[in-house]
Amino acid sequence: MPRFLLSSLSLVLACAFSGAIAQTSAPAAPSYGVELQGFTYPYPLKSYEFDSQGQHLKMGYMDVAATGTPNGRTMVLMHGKNFCGATWEESMRTLSAAGYRVVVPDQIGFCTSTKPAYYQYTFQQLAINTHGLLEKLGAQHVTVLGHSTGGMLAARYALMYPEQVEQLAMVNPIGLEDWKALGVPHRNVDQWYERELKLSADGVRKYELSTYYVGRWRPEYERWVDMLAGLNQGPGHKLVAWNSALIYDMIFTQPVVYEFPLLKMPVLLLIGDADTTAIGSDVAPADVKAKVGRYNVLGTQVAKMIPRATLVEFHGLGHAPQMEDPEGFHKALLAGLQAVK
After folding, report:
1. pLDDT digits (tens, 9 = 90+) for 177-232
2. What's the pTM?
3. Are 59 and 47 in contact (CB under 8 A)?
4. Is the dihedral angle over the CA atoms 315, 321, 322, 323 positive or is it negative?
5. Which one is predicted more confidently, 12 or 176?
């Protein structure tokens, strides 16, 4: 099982946080278009156009053929809330080399896809949108891999289309608990919107350092800060913030944890156990904050709820083990995928 080995803990943390202080004086993020125009994706970007809720929308996506000997399987990668399809870059390369076809959409409201002025965001709707894309691509049987919010969506997709999903894999999915039921205060959409209007590169960097990467910052993470902050601070600033607010409301009010026992396909849970991500924990009372986002506990709890679950824990890693320890993560991922034929 993968391990992140720490020696001389105090020295490591001191270096990490000094690096974080230096990062706060980094140049402002670049400005990207409302559909992330100007940001480079690792593979050719395509567009799926469709009508939904009375409007014409388009989803950006990548469709990468196997570069290794094809194994006949299609992987669908679902990004998280503060991520995009592009952040799957190393996973796409690894899976393609292992013989998988890899399809990576940007969901509506995110990244290279349409930001509607109005849209009723539900995980069901995003799943339906994604299903339409996969039908267009002729992907009849798929393995779905979701990270963070993408894990919530992947679970919903598997519940809605169980005959299509051969295997479900989730990387530090949020939604392993119901925050509102645990006492996290509710924010309305207007409050989320005001919060998102204030998003900055410095704020993103500090949040990700403490929550995603357990106090360890690497230069390669800066690109993803630029991506998120540059999209928000670009010409679509208000529209991007508004869609982000609607999406946060969806995440907070539409828990999937109660339905995990209904998943019948094999499920691979890949958990960085030092993660502390929990939506709304920044405004939660101290006693509530202390009990939410404990992935070292949540992984085991949820694995017991899912009939055919396999749990792999990455000790000492945070919210994005595929980015913190790509080699160890992908070794575990490929082993978990090969276990299902």
Report:
1. 999 999 999 999 999 999 999 999 999 999 999 888 999 999 999 999 999 999 99
2. 0.91
3. yes
4. negative
5. 176
How far is residue 257 CA from its own chain's centroid?
17
Q: Which residue has the tokens 């998280």?
A: 80
pLDDT band (50, 70, 90) for residue 341? low
Task: Quickly count: other Cβ atoms within 10 Å of residue 140's Cβ.
Answer: 10
Indicate the helix (H) or strand (E) that contains 192: helix 189-197
Are residues 159 and 203 in contact, defined by beta-carbon separation less than 8 angstroms?
A: no
Pick the CATH number of 9-338 from 3.40.930.10, 2.30.29.50, 3.40.50.1820, 3.40.1010.10: 3.40.50.1820
User: What is the per-residue pLDDT for 8?
Assistant: 35
Separation between Cα atoms, residue 195 and residue 193, nearest integer Å: 5
User: Which tokens go with 314?
Assistant: 């990455």
pLDDT at residue number 338: 85
Largest CA distance in the chain: 58
